[in-house]
Amino acid sequence: MSSLASIMDSSLGAMFAARVAMQTVGHNVANVNTPGFSRQEVLLAARRPLRLTYGTIGRGVEVQGIRRLTDQYLLANRREQSSLLYSYAEVDGSLQEIEAIFGSVENDHLGDAITKYFSAWSDLATPPSDPSMKQAVLSAAQNLVADFHAMAENLDGLTKNLTVSLDQEVGRFNELLQQVAQLNRQLLSGRNIGTAANDILDQRDLLIDEIAKLAQVTVVEREDYTVDVIMGGRTVVTREYATQFETVWQQEGSERRLSLVTMGHRKEVNLSQGAIEGMLTSIETTINEAHTQLDSMAALLADKVNELHVQGRSGGHSGLVFFTGDTAHTLNINPAILENPDLIATSRSGVEGDNDLALAIAQLPDQPLDGEGSATMMDKYRSILVGLASQRNRFEFLVANQDNIVTAIDSRLESVRGVSLDEEGANLVRFQNSYEAAARIITAVQDMFETLINM
What we know:
Blueprint: H1 2-30, E1 40-46, E2 50-52, E3 55-57, E4 61-68, H2 72-102, H3 109-125, H4 132-190, H5 195-214, E5 218-221, E6 227-231, E7 234-238, E8 241-242, E9 245-252, E10 255-262, H6 275-309, E11 313-314, E12 317-318, E13 323-324, E14 332-333, H7 335-339, H8 356-362, H9 377-417, H10 421-454
Antiparallel strand pairs: 1-4, 2-3, 5-6, 6-7, 7-8, 9-10, 11-12, 13-14
Helix pairs in contact: 1-10, 2-4, 2-5, 2-6, 2-9, 3-4, 3-8, 4-5, 4-6, 6-9
């Protein structure tokens, strides 16, 4: 009787193991399209055998656990490469916007406005002298100033929009950190083992993947299955506690700088890559450099024109500057000239028909700035456009190359943890046959019990 009971027990254990395995297969199939899901498999092992005087006899199979198939090394590598990708992508997006504001060598609206302005001076310097030409110079100057103002305002608008987006991403970053801490809390309180815990671990990995897109982080797993998330040398999640962040403008001398700091204590965090770092770089460096170059161009143009115009005499006046201001925002036409275009000086002598000053101003775009053989005003402006296009091409290449790297890692990771319906179908048939075979053994044992009882 005890031998038959042992056979019955082994067969029931086999049916249980097959049922758990089939349930795991069903769970895998159900989550074939679930983002971040890792394929699971049942770990089976032979039970400890029964020792008898004539030897040991097997006692069937037992379920030791349910393992999720993943690769922590590939996960960590993918997160690091994703951080770099999103950092490049943010800077590339900003460069696209700046390029649209500045235009290109082929579509150069500010360059056209500068050319038309100096062409108006050339027309004014060409005999016979026509008083209406001064109005043409004034109109061209107004268009040029308006273009500088529009570009400066667009750059300011880009900074403002990007700052709003940055605050939103930091808010999302805080939420993701809180969610990781909550899952840590679930693991601590429940100490779940098996499928439920595996699914929680998948959810947590997916959240950390999203965090890594925003900022480069490293993950340290504890023995209790919770994780510490470390960013910039600072632990931002430990067990059920998460640090929160905000962005602040900090004054450094005469300059303001946007920084990511811890909420409350306001300790600055140094970021190396990720979307948040890319946004900070775009605001603090990329857009700021474009603004500086635009201001430099506006100041150069105003200085060179004013340097000559103050030498002229017109309408009984002398020493008038043509432009006021020294940045793209502040550049304007002298109010006196706006009210009376006749004050535009065409010569140093003030004698009618003498257009030496108008001719000198008209030639400014092609005059070397620092002596013979040096770059001209238009050369300097074109170098800004070429430098911007070169920088844009560089980041476009970096984004494409980094995207290929992330895609390759994703493919390798998917081959480890992805669900294959063909493989799961084969496993289903295998475990179903195992279940049915164990059931037939139980039926045979029942018949043997009946025979023994009848005897």
